Amino acid sequence: MQIFGVDIGGSGIKGAPVDLDKGDLAAERFKVLTPHPSTPDSVADGVRQVVEHFGWTGPVGLTFPGVITGGSTVRTAANVDKDWVDTDARALFSERLGGLPATVVNDADAAGVAEMRFGAGKDRMGTVILLTFGTGIGSALFIDGKLVPNTELGHLELHGHDAEKRASSKAKDDGELTWEHWAHRVQKYLAHVEMLFSPELIVIGGGVSRKAQKFLPFIEGIQAEIVPAQLQNNAGIVGAAMHAAES
Ligand code: BGC
Q1: How many A from CA of 154 to the centre of ligand 1?
Q2: CA-closest candidate to residue 105, choices 149, 135, 148
Q3: CATH topology of domain 123-229
């Protein structure tokens, strides 16, 4: 079965039809840049462009980089326009897609669900945490394979700062940090997460997962096993489609 997945991020809106049996994209993904300002109206337009590119007419699963409650309502918007707060995202996307059925889930939760089914967390019990490093830091917490949604661990406080402002990959780029310097910050962040949850496994997702060998060797003193995500930057798209299939 195929469902269309869209991953809305701070820098890009990416989408593709997803083969749900394989947990993989069924066609090469298409991306548009996230508009600035990233208002509900302009982002919904970007989503429409991505879906129309494929002439898709079936159900669409979407991710959003903020807390989503009730499967629809946006509660936070750290890296997108604040007008999103309290928006009924599901209704907005469905309307903009000409009435196609739409579902919405937090981006890191979507990536986590995909990694647990098809990637680095497959068959892993106990406490597993996926952390995505991108414009912000997203988190997905699993207990014996079951998701605890909207954990928002990217906003833990690290040395008096919002952790994602110090340790996201955007913070690395903005501060022109070396891999080693950035890894040092990530290590402090992971130590804090470990102190709170003692996970058995930490999966590192987001664009940096492709470059894991550049920074994982610098991370020391964490007891949890740390591995890069296997679906890499497609996990959000796959997870969005999985969520739509299960809603
Ligand atoms: C948001 C999260 C999101 C993460 C990654 C954070 O700023 O609060 O909801 O998962 O960024 O996009």
Answers
A1: 7
A2: 149
A3: Nucleotidyltransferase; domain 5 (3.30.420)
pLDDT tens-digit readout, 221-232: 999 999 999 997
- H helix or E strand, kind and range, residue 12: strand 12-19
The two three-digit tokens of residue 178, written as one number: 């070396």
Minimum CA distance residue for ligand 1 atom 9: 66
The two beta strands, 68-69 and 73-74, are antiparallel
Element (H, E) at 45: helix 40-53
Strand 157-158 vs strand 102-106: parallel, antiparallel, or unpaired? unpaired
- pTM for the structure as a whole: 0.97
Name the CATH architecture for the domain at 2-109+235-246.
2-Layer Sandwich (3.30)
Q: Give the distance (Å) from ligand 1 centre to CA of residue 136.
A: 6
